Amino acid sequence: MTVSFSLELPTHRVEAVEEFVTAEAIAEIAKTAEASGFAAVHVTDHPAPDAKWLDHGGHHALDPFVALAFAAAATTEVKLLTNVYIAAYRNPFLGAKSIQSLATLSNGRLILGTAAGYLKPEFKALGIDFDSRGALLDEALDVLEKVLTGADIAYEGTSFAGRGVRFRPLPTTPLKVWVGGNSKPAIRRAVSRAQGWAPFNTFGYAAASRTAEISTVDELEVAIDWAKQYAAEIGRTAPLDICFSAGNLLDDNKSADERHATIARLGAAGVTWLTFVPPGADRAEVIEHSRAFAKEFIVA
Q1: Second label for 186, Cα 20 to 30 Å away, from 67, 83, 118, 130?
Q2: Hey, where are the domains in the chain?
């Protein structure tokens, strides 16, 4: 199976703002991704990260829709992936408006990767009940699905009630939604109501991210088999995109042959997308590594 690749826009690199967190930087790196053959660029979502998490390996993030809008304006074809957007952080109608806006202005290039979330202090800072995050994600997906039909909708959620809500304009291309996470509930949600599933390599921090451990290809294959079994149980016949955040499995410290073998094995298991995080001390190095990776691993 052919695997597509998404390049991370390093907007979390706030230690070098001029290199990575400017309109120029986003545009240049997104253009590089498009020209090099990456199928998408992606960012993540952390509106209120806490200091303890940041001081122990966490990271900052721009608003994903703003960052991806700048990437969209600089490109014409590359997809725009939220990897991942935490829907529970926002009122579902407000979130749907951001999604609709970017999907419309980018001519349908948005892929909405979303998940329940795991950073408890961030939920608290935003006034959101952490223990309700799964149900809140389901509400957000319900609202999004309904408003994008174009019909006037009514929806009563746990903390909101909409009557006769109408969205215009509608995106001209059907929106792809991927659900992220390694847990059984995340897999069930992805298989039952989304076009894709986005597991990620926990490489030792599954407990911190409050999800199941997937740090080896063996563990991912077991999870994919479970997803296929669940799809058969519920009668799903549509193909399921699987976007794996491979992390250290594709690190530069591995040989090209090792990485080729890993990519081939992941594709054989059913992975259709892989994310790539380009290393580099500055923008020039990030761009150089991105081009080199694309030349070596992306099939034209």
Answers
A1: 67
A2: 181-269
